[in-house]
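hiii so my PI (J.) wants the whole complex modelled not just the main chain, which honestly fair. so below is everything: two entries, each one labled with what it is. i double checked the lines twice but i was tired so who knows lol
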Amino acid sequence: MKVLDRKLFRVLWTIKGQVIAIAMVIASGIATLVMSLSTIEALEETSAAYYERYRFADVFAQVKRAPEKLTAQIRDIPGVQTIQTRITRYTTVDVTGFSEPVIGLLSSVPEDRQPNLNQLVLRKGSWLSSQATDEVIINEPFAEAHGLAIDDVISLILNGRKKPFRIKAIALSPEHIYSLGPGMLLPDDQRFAVMWMGRKAMASAFDLESAFNDLTLTVEHQASINPILDQLDVLLAPFGGISAIERKDQISNWFVMNEIAQQKTMATILPSIFLAVSVFLTHMILSRLIATERTEIGLLKAFGYSQLQVSWHYLKMVVVICLLGITLGSLLGLMLGRYNTQMYADLFRFPLLVYQPGMQSFLLGGLISVAGALAGAMGAVSKVVQLPPAVAMSPPAPPNYQHGLFSKSWVTQWLDQPTRIAFRQIGRWPLRSFLTSTGMAFSMGLIVMTLQWNDSLGLLAQVNFFEAQKQDLMVGLAEPKKLRALHDLEHLPGVMRAEPVRYISADLRSEHRSHRGSITAMAADNQLQSIYDDAARQSVPVPDEGLILAERLAEKLQVSKGDLVRIDVLEGRRPSLLIPVVDTVETYLGMAAYANLTAMNRLLMDGELFQFANLKTDSLQAADLFYALKNTPMVSSVMVKQAALDAFNETLVEHLMVFITMFIVLAGMVAFGVTYNSTRIALSERGRELATLRVLGFTHGETSYVLLGEVTLLILLGLLLGSLVGWGLVWSMAAAFDTELFRVPLVISEATIAWSMIIVLLAAMLSFTLISGRVRRLDLIKVLKTRE
Amino acid sequence: MTTVKKQSTKTVLSARKLTKVYHTGAIDVWALRGVDFDLYANEMVVLLGASGSGKSTLLNILGGLDVPTEGKVIYADHDISHANDKALTRFRRDHVGFVFQFYNLIPSLTALENVALVTEITPDALDPAKALDLVGLTERMNHFPAQLSGGEQQRIAIARAIAKQPDILLCDEPTGALDMQTGIMVLQAIENINQELGTTTAVITHNAVVGQMADRIIYLSDGQIAGIDVNQQRLPASQLEW
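here's the output for the full assembly
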C-alpha cells in the first residue's frame, strides 16, 4: 500500500465519527431506494409466480344462468386456451359463537380434483370426497380469524335453507389474494369468507344443473384480449352476462397491482428525496472537511505531488466514504425490503415468496451517491488544489468580520459575548449556515411527510366513516327487490330507519373516454348515507334528475356541470342512457357517480327496485338484529360500519406504522448526520477558539454553548423551514398518490409538526452529546501551541 | 529611567518538587524534574530557557492548564496540583490571566467584545473600555481582530487577560510572533499592568534581553531551575533592544 493510501485510511480512522455520520446519510438514501425497488421486484415476481403456478385466469365473466353447452362456442373464440365454468354465489355464513352476520363467497370446484383454473393452495386437510354433499373448503384468513379447524362445522344459508357443512380443507387462492366482501373497503377476514364446494352440491342447491353463472378462461400468449372480451360479451349477453373483464380489472389482482403501483410511486419519490438530501449533505460536509485539510494539501504539493495526484487522493477518500454508505445502505435496504415484502406476503398470504433483489437498484443508488458526493468534493478539492503550496500551507487569512446591520443595534447590546459569537459566525458564513438549516429542514420535512400519512388517513376515516355515512349497517340483497321489501327490513329488531340504495354497474363514457364503475342511486330523503363533499365537508342534496360526479371521475371523463355522460348499463336490459352532470363533489375514496333512485329506476324501466339498504339501529338490540339478519333469506351481505372502521384501522394504520417507523429512523439518521457533521467540522475549524475560551476560565458547558449555540440557532431556523419543506413534500406525495382508489387529503396536524420537531431535536441532541464529549477532551495546551 | 522596587516576600503561588513526565509511545519525556518555585506578590518574573527546557510546561502547570506528574502547587493554601477539572477551571477563571504567543482572540468579536467575553464571567472585573485604555487601544475598540495589527492584537489579548483583575498574569512568549518595535510596545503594556495594578506577572521568553525588565530572572534548563538572578534595578521596557 502506498504511503498516501495509508495516510488516507489513518485520516479516515481519525475522523471516523464524521465518516460514519456521512455514511449514514448516504445509507439512508440508498436504503430507501433498495427497499422500495426490491419490494416492487419481489411483489411482482411473487405474484407472477403465484399466478402461474396456480393457473390464475386471464378473463372473468358472470352471467345469470348459462347452459354448460355454451362452452363449446366459447372455446371456438380464437385465442381462448382453457375454460373453467363454475357456480358462484354470495351466502350468509353462521359461525358458532360469532353473533354478527358473515358473508361468504361460495365457488364451485370439481369434487374429485383441482379445477383447471384458479387452483387452490391447500394449506390443511384434503380435497373434497367425490360423493359428499356436506363438505366445504374455506379460505385460510377466515379460518384463522375464527380459529376454525378441519372437521369443524359451519352453517350456510343456501337458497334460503340453512345447512351444516364440514370443513374438509383450508386453502388459499390466487383469485382472492385481497379478499374483499361486497360493500367492503378493506378486507375483513372475520366477516367475509371465501369458500369452495363441490359443483354438484352447489348446482342442486341453486338450481343450476348443467348450467353455470361464472366463467373464467385463459388466453393464448399472443392473443389480444379485447376481441376475446367483445366476442364473449356477445355470447353471454342473452344469459344475463355482465360484461367480461380481464385480469387487470379483477378485484383482488387490481388491489395487488395497485399496491405495487403505490410502491412504485414511493420508489420514485421517497428515494429521490432521500438521495437528493444525502447528496446535498455529502457535498456540504465533504467540502468543509476538505477545506480543513488545506495545510496538508499544500504540504503534499510542496513535496512534488501533482494536482491530479492530490485531487485523486482526496476523491478516493470520498469514494471510500461513499462505499461505506452504500454498503450500509444496501444492507439496511435489503433488511427493510425483506421485512417489507414479508409484511406484504403476510398481508396477501402469498404461499410462496420470491425475494431475489436484482443488482440494478444497488448500482443505481450507488452511482447516484458516488456521483453526487464526488461532484460535491470536486469543487472543494479543486479550490484547494489550485492554491500555490506556500499559500495553502499558511492558514487561511483570519475570517474578516465586519460590522453588519445589527452589530451595533440594541439587539446586540442585549446579547452576551458567546451568543454574539454564534450570531456573527452565522452572519459570516451565511451560505454554509443556510445549507445546514436546509439539511435540518429536509430531515424534518421527511418526518413531517411520514407522520402526516396518519393525519390524512385519520381525516379520511373521519370523513368517510362518520361524516359521510351515518348508518350502522349496510345490508345487501341477493338480487334487486321492490321497494316495499324495505318495510321487511324496517321491521327487523332494533332497526330505527332503513334507506334504500341501488348500485348500477355501468360504463360511463364521454367521447372516447370511459370508466367502468357504478352509479349510486339514492332516495331523495336519504339521511344515513349522503352525497358528501369531503373537502367542503358538507352534504349535497340528492338531485331530482342528473348525475353528481366525484371530481376525479369528472376529470377522468373530462366533463363538467351541464355536460352529458353516456351510461352503458351493464345489467338488466342493458340500456344506454344519456344523463347530464348536474354537479361535482370532491371525494377522497373511490370515483362515485350519484343519482336519484326514483329517477334511475324510471330510466331503467325495471320497476321500483333497490338492492342495498342503510340501517340505523339500536345497538342494544344488535344481537337480535344479527340473528334475524342471518335468518333473512333475501339478505346476502351485511356490512357493519364499526367493523369496517376497525378493519381500516387495523390494516391500513398498522401497515402504515411500520413504514412510518422505518422512515423516521432513516430521516432521524439524516438529522443526526447533518448536526453531527456541522458541529464536528465547526469544532475542528474552531478548536483553537474554543480552547482559548477554556483557558480563559470558561467551563465545559459555557464553551460548548459557543459551539452548539450556533448550530442550535441553525437547527431552530431549520425547524421553521422544515415545516415548509414538510408541507411541500406532503403536497408532492399527495399529488403522486392521487389514484383512482383514493385521494390523500392534504392535512398536517399540529401534533405531526411538534413530533417532527421533537424527533429532529432528539437526533440533534444525540450528536451534541457526542460532540460535547469532544469539547471536554480538547487538549488545551496542544491547541494553543500549534498554529493551525 | 530605572525603577527600584522593594521586593515583596508574600508568596502568591508556590511549587514544590514539580515533576512532569510525558509518556509518548515507548519513551518518557521528562519535561520537569523536581522544580521548586515561588511567585511573590506584585513581582515580575521572566522565565528564560531554550526550547524544550520546560518553561512552558511549568507555566501551564502554574496556570492550571496542566497537572504535574508529581509535586505540589499551592495557591492560597490550596493544592491545585491535584484539583479536578472543575476546580482548575474555577482557578483560571478567577485568578489567572493568560497571554499567548498567537494572541488567540475570537475573530468574530470586536476588541471590546473580546475583553467583555472575560469580564462577563468574572466578578469585580474592570470595565472592558478601561482595560483597553490601559493598553492604549481605546480608539481601536470597535475593530475586529482581522482589522488589527499583530501588536494591537496582542495588546488586546493583554487587556483581556487583566480585565478580570487576576492575581497572576502568565505570558507565554508574548512577543514571539512580533518584530522588536511592536514587541516592545507589548512589553510596555505588560510592564504597565504590573506596576499600575500590581499584578504578579510571569513572562516566558527565550529572549534574554527581556529579562532586564524583570524583578527576577529564572533560568530553566533540561527541566530544572539552572539559576535565579535578581535584578536590583529593572530596565524599563522602552529601553530594551534586541
